[in-house]
Amino acid sequence: MAKKIDLKDIVQDAFDASIQQISGYDAAFLYAESPTSPMHVATLNIVEGSLKYEDFKEIVASKLHLIPKFRQRLLSVPMNLDYPYWVDDPNFDLDLHLNRMKLPDPSNWKTLRDLTSSLFSSPLDLRRPLWSVHFIEGIDEIAQVPKGSVAIVTKVHHVMIDGSSGVGLLGVLYDSDADGKKKKRTKPKPFNPEPLPDELSLLLKSGYGFLKNPFKIPKTVTETVYSFIKSKAASKLSIQKEFSSTKFPVPITIFNGSISAKRTWGTAILSFDRINSLRKVMGGSINDMILVICAGAIRRYLIEREKLPLHPLVANVPISIRNENSSDMNNQIANMMIQLATHIEDPLERLEYIQEQTMLGKSRHNTLGAKTLAKMADVVPFGLANLAAGLYSKYNIKDLHRPPFNVTITNVPGPRGLLYLNGHKVVSIFGLTPVVDGFGLIIAAFSYNGQVSITTTSDAKTMPDADVFSRYIRESANELEDLIKNLGKSKTSSKEVKKVKSKSTPFFTALKKYLKDNPKDVKAYKGVYQMQVGLGDTTNGWEIDLTKSVATVKKLKNLDPKLLVEIEDENLFALYKGKLILEELKIQGRIKITGSAASKTKFMNLLTAFLER
Predict the structure, then answer these.
(1) What is the pLDDT confidence band of residue 314, given thresholds at 50, 70 and 90?
(2) 511 and 531 Cβ atoms separated by less than 8 Å
(3) Which helix (H) or strand (E) holds 482?
(4) Most CB contacts within 10 A, which of 176, 231, 361, 394?
(5) At CB < 8 A and 24+ separation, what contacts does 580-586 make?
(6) Is 395 helix (H, G, I), strand (E, B) or coil?
(7) Strand ranges (DSSP E) for 402-486?
(8) How far apart are CA 501 and CA 569, in angstroms?
(9) Which of 250, 246, 247, 245 shows the shortest CA–CA distance to 404?
(10) What is the mean pLDDT of the segment spanning 443-464?
């Protein structure tokens, strides 16, 4: 007898708010999946000492309830008429996601790298929760790693997380202190999965979403047009107008062909303090230094193969638009395009060129704004986008046009201190990222415990010698460091003759006048805000005191690190003159605010009100 259809249950499922649909941006990673391009990210964590597999499994089981998506899978809408939904997996079994193995002999770094490449090359099962962990025992011959240590390779589909939420994931699975063995471990919470919704209810739910917001597409288009016009007006006031499309060609390189299914990767480990000291001499950001180091390695790699194009390579640089209070694991990223100055031989001139590019930031490539693009992604019908991605790969459409960029370079700040697993120290963390047809090279920088691991992911066809490229990254960093140190010495000697003058002093003068003329804002943004303005080797301290009826803005020598706003002098001056946008500086990490969430919000509102005066 056929199963009786219960319309009441179907309607109830359709209006169930607990069933969440993936966003258009997340869906992009799903429909980019192909036999040669599994779209997952991975981390290789080396854990010191003989961690027992049974203890590791127990830890994962006790924390699964903190990561709901680890027990959910995707359920497609019939005929792919809409984006899939996250639903509880009624067949979830932890043993299907944990894999135990021993590192083959010789148990050294090359063997571990080859094994990790093999594991990373295989796709995740899209019919199950989209993650897996390989627990690799018997690491005995890696320098500076104690004999008997273990490696943990974690794969998570990119539809679930971006780089920033991946860092949050580390905080769930690992401890920040070495007392993990002594702590009483919580018992795994029972998993009572919700029944799978009926296909008809998914269609109703998608239809209801459209009826609820039938003007979603025209509304998004309107907002897009408004943002475009606004950005065009802003471009007339900034140097970004110098970079028209005719002056910004993207060359075709060996990194932009078809890829193979086998992944290759290598990593270079640099000292964060060394990179930061170079940044202090040259100004700009940590991201600028990483970009110029990678650009040097790319230039050398292509020169040795006689494949360096005349025009500079263009990097896609993902930037997080994640709100610091956001707990969602989904992707919240935007992108900016940066010319890597690979046509310039001198590393210092290359750095200056790249710094100018990043100052323009997303205003050149991403003039619509990150949030607008995220909304646009949700407008694209899932089935149409899926079809487009498949046709792009199947018919090699990439060969019919120039690539929009040549390489992706991403920088994700990780934990500053050590992480532990059941009392065992996590020695190193390396991040591997997916590559696709037309974009066969991605470089991921990840900072952890005073180190920055710059990991290159490619494929056997595009870059079979990724370990050689990683050596070029180290040598590029050393070359840049030598040049900047020599430059720093000359700066020090010239500084004795001439004192550096701040460009941004007019900002504080104008702010003082603004607060005097707007006593309501003094009351609304009550508090004490201290700013540290970078001037190369020195800094200026300022205090903005809004605790009294009359605000005071004055220089201050001793600043409170618990409530501090840090920004480079040239960036503050450009912000004051309207050549940079506050949101850009915040997204790019060029303005750093330390303090409570309330004080951060009040200061940003004050700064916004002043700049829009």
Answers:
(1) very high
(2) no
(3) helix 466-495
(4) 361
(5) 580/238, 580/359, 580/361, 581/234, 581/363, 582/607, 582/608, 582/611, 583/369, 584/361, 584/362, 584/363
(6) coil
(7) 407-413, 420-421, 424-432, 442-448, 451-459
(8) 10
(9) 250
(10) 94
Q: Is the dihedral of CA 452, 457, 460, 461 positive or negative?
A: negative
Where are the strands (E) in 51-180, listed by range? 72-75, 85-88, 98-102, 131-139, 149-157
Find the mean pLDDT for residues 204-219: 48
Q: Of 113-117, 302-306, 383-387, 604-608, which gets the smallest average pLDDT?
A: 383-387
Taking only the tens place, the pLDDT of each residue in 95-152 is 999 999 999 999 999 999 999 999 999 999 999 999 999 999 999 998 888 899 999 9
The 10 Å CB-count burial string (b at 16+, else e) for 53-66 is eebbbebbbebbee
Q: With H, G, I as helix, E, B as strand and everything else as coil, classify residue 208.
A: helix
Could you report the per-residue pLDDT of 502-529, keeping only the tens digit for each?
Answer: 888 889 989 999 999 998 988 889 888 8
Pairing mode of beta strands 451-459, 333-339: unpaired
Strands of 451-459's sheet, edge to edge?
Answer: 263-271, 451-459, 442-448, 407-413, 314-320, 333-339
Nearest C-alpha neighbor of 381 from the set 221, 198, 206, 159: 206
Give the Cβ contact number of residue 479 at 10 Å: 14
pLDDT digits (tens, 9 = 90+) for 34-90: 889 898 989 999 999 889 999 999 999 998 888 888 999 998 776 666 778 888 999
Cα 104 to chain centroid, rounded: 33
Question: Are the C-beta atoms of 289 and 275 separated by less than 8 Å?
Answer: yes
Burial class (CB in 10 A: 0-12, 13-18, 19+), 371: middle
Q: How far is CA 311 from CA 137, 257, 340, 512, 527, in A?
A: 47, 18, 10, 46, 50
Rounded to whole angstroms, how far apart are CA atoms 37 and 459? 10
What tens digit of pLDDT does each residue of 159-187 get?
Answer: 887 544 455 566 678 888 887 666 777 78
Q: Which residues pair with 446 in a beta bridge?
A: 412, 453
pLDDT score of 469 more than 80: yes
The H or E element containing residue 379 is: helix 370-379
- 546-570 average pLDDT score: 83
Phi/psi at 573 (5° precision): -65, -45
Helix or strand (DSSP H, E) at 314: strand 314-320
- Other CB atoms within 10 Å distance of the CB of residue 102: 12
User: Judging by beta carbons within 10 Å of its beta carbon (0-12, 13-18, 19+), is residue 87 exposed, middle or buried?
Assistant: buried
For residues 178 and 295, what is the distance between their CA atoms, to the nearest angstrom? 38
**pLDDT value for 221:** 39
CA-based R_g, the chain, Å: 26
Candidate from 52-61, 207-216, 453-462, 509-518 with smallest mean pLDDT? 207-216
* Dihedral sign of CA atoms 81, 85, 88, 91 in order: positive
Q: Which residue has the tokens 């310039």?
A: 344
Q: Which residues contact 329 (CB under 8 A, 6 or more apart)?
A: 67, 69, 160, 161, 165, 168, 169
